[in-house]
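Sorry to interrupt, but I need a hand with the structure work. I would like you to pick a protein and set down its sequence and fold. Please put the record directly below this note.
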Amino acid sequence: MEKLANKVAVVTGASKGIGAGIAKSLAAAGASVVVNYASAKAGADQVVEEIIAAGGKAIAVQGSVRKTADISRLFETAQTSFGAVDILVNNAGVYKFGAIDEITEEDFHSQFDTNVLGLLLTTQGALKHFNEEGGSIINIGSVVSSIAPVGSSVYTATKAAVDSITHVLSKELGPKKIRVNSINPGMVETEGTHTAGLIGSDFHAEAERSTPLGRIGQPEDIALVAVFLASEDSRWLTGETLLAGGGVR
């Protein structure tokens, strides 16, 4: 039996990488999925096509998590298309590494506005459309909040904020039967890590060397954890930050 049959899921930043992997896995588990994207329409459409080809249900909806009007339209479209929301995956995020003397105001606001404010605004918008029976909110954090790598001051600060928000909202939304948890991945091979030149680099080699399971992650590794947190299998978990980095901590 499909774990997420008759459930409705919204995944932000789902046109590629971890978000795309999560969207496809939620759909494979039976959920109707709203694939949100900010600008990569072709990628989002491809994810939707793959889900439908596999027998699932999905639509793509453009919208920036930094804009309340876009968020309202995202959830209104989700409810009109599939019904009340059961699952929200706050995956949209950006990152930029640099030493302390390289940080700019633009770098700071770009990362905090998407990774922190965007998560808060999206969650706020989702609550108006959640199923009365509750549901699951899954935030995508990062192992950086635990290992604090050099040159990641701003990015690590945003993901530490995600950890804190997860804990606070688990208490705040518990009475509404909404569980809030975070998945904190280690290095994952995605379009983004390829574009950034990380795959095949010394950083990549060091990541594999320091990972007990001896490799970096794949989007499916994170997606399987998301399906667990979205399903009744995790019904007694809330406020948790699950490290998903092959043992890195």
